[in-house]
Amino acid sequence: MPEAPDLEVVKDHLNRRVAGLTIRSAKTLKPTVIRSLAGDFQTDLPGRAVEGFRRRGKFLMAGLSGSKLLVVNPMLTGAFQLCDSSKPLYKRACFTLSLADGRDLRYLDQRQMGRVYYVNDDGLAQVPRLDEQGPDALSPGSFEEFQERLRPFRGEIKGILTGGRVLAGIGNAYADEILFAAGVYPFRKKKALTIDETRRLFDMSKAVTQEAVDILRGRVGDDIHVKVRDFLKVHNRGGQPCPNCGAAITQIGANQRVTSYCRRCQPGLLVGN
Ligand SMILES: [Zn+2]
Fold first, then answer.
1. Domain total of the chain
2. Residue 189 belongs to domain with CATH number
3. I need a labelling partner for 10 at 20 to 30 A (CA). Which of 50, 59, 72, 255 fits?
């Protein structure tokens, strides 16, 4: 899934290449993905200028002239594509916006689990889960606030991190990276975390996210729909040597739900940790 580092780089790219352009036409290809709460998507968008993009956790928003917003929750497989209008559509394209410069901004989603909300700019409360998110992983506030937000949670730390209420923007891949950098076992119960581990998780959430943004800025070119993940240290690297200690990386689960970690650098027991 696109996480804070991926979306941060996409946001900057779209601000450079799309902000200021007018939408010539809008075409819906997969209606189930679109929630038109501020007018019909296909007839209301044309003629509006794209004012700029911003990110809130795992949501990307485009401000449009006339006080409208497109708010995208890409979920597991959503992605943006910016390309020449003549380029053939991918089957997974859900909508396309033709821009005044002859290019298209397209939204792709293989599983169509993502949602795109067309709202008035005072209608953000209508977007499910947007306001439930905690502060962004890149601007997490103080450690004391982090501890306070963690307090009501029970259960395993990885699930708490990816839930987005304590910090926003961390998904399955970067949670593995943050836990590895902090030396914390992913299935550790929150109540078993020491103060030092909690501190390291807080510090590494921002550091790992920022480092990934810096790397991706140099790696993601015009093909913003292609996810770059080959520089990650443990996520999806089951069986490969740990970059810290050389032990084989352990991997549990499948597909979008894998958890990868080093048993030696992140010690813990699967049961009763
Ligand atoms: Zn290791």
1. 2
2. 1.10.8.50
3. 255
The pTM (predicted TM-score) of the whole model is 0.95
Q: Is 2 a catalytic residue?
A: yes
| 3 is annotated as an active-site residue | yes
- Is the pLDDT at 229 greater than 70? The verdict is yes
Asked whether residue 236 is domain-assigned, the answer is yes
Residue 173: closest CA among 233, 225, 123:
233
Residue 171 located in a structural domain: yes
Q: In DSSP terms, which residues pair with 189 in a beta bridge?
A: 156
- Taking phi over 0 as left and psi of -120 to 50 as alpha, with beta for the rest, 145 belongs to alpha
Please indicate, yes or no, if residue 194 is contained in any of the structural domains. Answer: yes
Ligand 1 geometric centre to CA of 163 (Å) = 26
Q: Which one has a higher pLDDT value, 257 or 73?
A: 73
Dist. CA 233 → ligand 1 center (Å): 10
Amino acid identity of 173?
A
- Quickly tell me which residue has 């910090």 as its tokens: 167
Q: Which of 200, 186, 182, 133 is nearest to 157 (CA)?
A: 186
User: Tell me, what CATH number does 60's domain have?
Assistant: 3.20.190.10
Range of the domain at 147: 143-261
Given a contact cutoff of 8 angstroms between Cβ atoms, the answer to whether 37 and 118 are in contact is yes
